[in-house]
């Protein structure tokens, strides 16, 4: 399902700071814009409630996950809330193991080749390249040149509709979108407008 979602739209919505009472409305405009992977970081208010609401509301072809997952206990709580994807800023082996044992999709954070290869051996489905602001497309291209063919590398951090093309040319599979898409205090309409701009840029570059 993760591969299908990424193939349909490689943009991942990172909703840090999302509140449960706004989660359904935000989730619906993202889905309508074309997003098929939505992540609620666990340092958001009542994140498990938002994950549960999104999973119970949005169509089955939309993957709901959690970000900033830092412990094996968090993995179990995400699964209990209906989450399907574990996203991490790092590659803690205990969290990797817990996610795979729970049958969840896994996107650990990596920067170096050593981290990337270790994460793949541990069962990572997607590699989250974080923080992307510190890396150039040339570095990304070099990294992909040595990783197994077909490795899904997803830059996160500082991605805008204007800088996506260089990373796509380097071979990335998609992008994680944070404050450029959503941040606390934005209206549903603002998020809808941001989502539309990102999806249009993605479609024009991939078309």
UniProtKB/TrEMBL annotation:
InterPro entries: Aldlse_KDPG_KHG, Aldolase_TIM. CDD domains: KDPG_aldolase (cd00452). Keywords: Carbohydrate metabolism, Lyase. Pathway: Carbohydrate acid metabolism. Transmembrane segments: none annotated. GO terms for molecular function: lyase activity. Homotrimer. Belongs to the KHG/KDPG aldolase family. PANTHER family: 2-DEHYDRO-3-DEOXY-6-PHOSPHOGALACTONATE ALDOLASE-RELATED (PTHR30246:SF1), 2-KETO-3-DEOXY-6-PHOSPHOGLUCONATE ALDOLASE (PTHR30246). This is 2-dehydro-3-deoxy-6-phosphogalactonate aldolase.
């Amino acid at each position: 399902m993760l591969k299908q979602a990424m193939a349909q739209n490689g943009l991942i919505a990172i909703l840090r700071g999302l509140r449960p009472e706004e989660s359904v409305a935000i989730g619906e405009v993202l889905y309508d814009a074309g997003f098929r992977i939505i992540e609620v970081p666990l340092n958001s208010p009542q994140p498990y409630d938002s994950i549960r609401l999104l999973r119970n509301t949005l169509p089955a072809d939309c993957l709901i996950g959690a970000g900033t997952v830092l412990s094996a206990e968090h993995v179990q709580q995400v699964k209990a809330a209906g989450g399907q994807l574990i996203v991490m800023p790092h590659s803690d082996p205990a969290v990797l193991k817990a996610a795979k044992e729970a049958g969840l999709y896994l996107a650990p954070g990596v920067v170096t080749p050593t981290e990337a290869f270790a994460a793949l051996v541990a069962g990572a489905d997607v590699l989250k390249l974080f923080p992307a602001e510190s890396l150039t497309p040339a570095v990304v291209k070099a990294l992909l040149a040595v990783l197994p063919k077909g490795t899904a590398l997803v830059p996160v951090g500082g991605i805008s509709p204007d800088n996506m093309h260089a990373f796509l040319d380097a071979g990335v599979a998609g992008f994680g979108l944070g404050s450029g898409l959503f941040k606390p205090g934005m209206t549903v309409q603002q998020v809808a407008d941001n989502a539309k701009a990102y999806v249009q840029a993605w479609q024009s570059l991939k078309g």
